[in-house]
Amino acid sequence: MVSEKVTSRHAIVVLILFIFGSSVVAGVNTEAKQDSWIALIAAVFLSIPILLIYARIIKLYPGLGLYEIVEKLFGKIGGKIITLIMAWYSLHLGAIVLRNFSEYINITTLLNTPQILIVIMLLLVTIYIARSGPYILGSWSIVGLMLIILMVLISVVFSFNRIDIQNIFPIMGSGFKKVTSGTINIISFPFAETVLLLPFACFLKKSDSPYKIYMYGLLFGGIILLIIIMRNLTVLGADMMYQSYFPSFTAARVIEVGNFLTRVEGLITINFIIAGITKITVCLISFALAIARIFSINNYKRVVMPSALLFLALSTIIYNNTSEMKNFTNVYPFYAATFQLIIPLIIWITAEIKKKQEVALIN
Fold first, then answer.
1. Which residues lie below 8 Å from residue 252, measured CB to CB, with a gap of 6+?
2. Which 8-state DSSP code applies to residue 259?
3. What does DSSP assign to residue 169?
4. How far is residue 199's CA from residue 112's CA, in Å, rounded to a whole number?
5. Core-most of 23, 202, 277, 301, by most CB within 10 Å?
6. pTM: predicted TM-score of the whole model, two decimal places
């Protein structure tokens, strides 16, 4: 495998942008309507133990990525099976984000453009970043994060004349069941999706703290998402936010500053492109690392291009329309639980047992 290394700062920023991903435009789950901000805060805190498990796996085997770790724990055959399962999740999630991209651009900007052309254009950028290596991905993410923060703050300031604080009331008016369901959905998308950062541990220095990377990324990403969801809620109202496919875009469309500044939704599109490309690139590298490991290829960059073609093919057939894309979010937490929770739990428990056995043998 390649010997490239990244700093912990790069890793934190990549994780933050991965959390943003399509959430910047598609928004976090709005099932709880005016209580969606409560569901988001609850999801951040309930995601902490899950992400600590991810960090603990890395801490137990510093310098190794997920796919190397599972081969150490479960042997070559067992390790390759788990690697193949996680490779599928990387491929599927990358295809989902690609389709989110193409649907958004097709609906809001390029109405008559074939979606496959949009996907190809996005993939070309993604392939370039993935082949350039994790350090370039980290540098891209630092610049991208600064731009996103600036764009979000500008959109919030410009929306002051449209904000109605009454839109957050009545608090808990959607009911405990809706808030709980919304919380589970937000944990699954986007926070627990950071399981796909585990393969990137091979690019970290052994001295870097995975706890710091995951916790800083989670908390900072959660704060920005909270700002976004509060902006959407107070500008649009609970019902419109819930019914919109792309609530951030819809909120930005109503922003006007006097008679000279309109069409602020362009800022949201920039956010979406930056964060979305980062998320797709992470999925692509994670998938390429898995394929390289399974077939004993010493450099994942050699399989980036064919991997991207698989992303392209799957993204074009994954949904029939935008409505189907949104409906899939209702079943996604149950589907993703295998990759986000069950497999990491098995890996973590096995790793703890084996480490204790190694310590006992030494003593």
1. 155, 159, 264, 265, 267, 268
2. T
3. P
4. 38
5. 23
6. 0.94
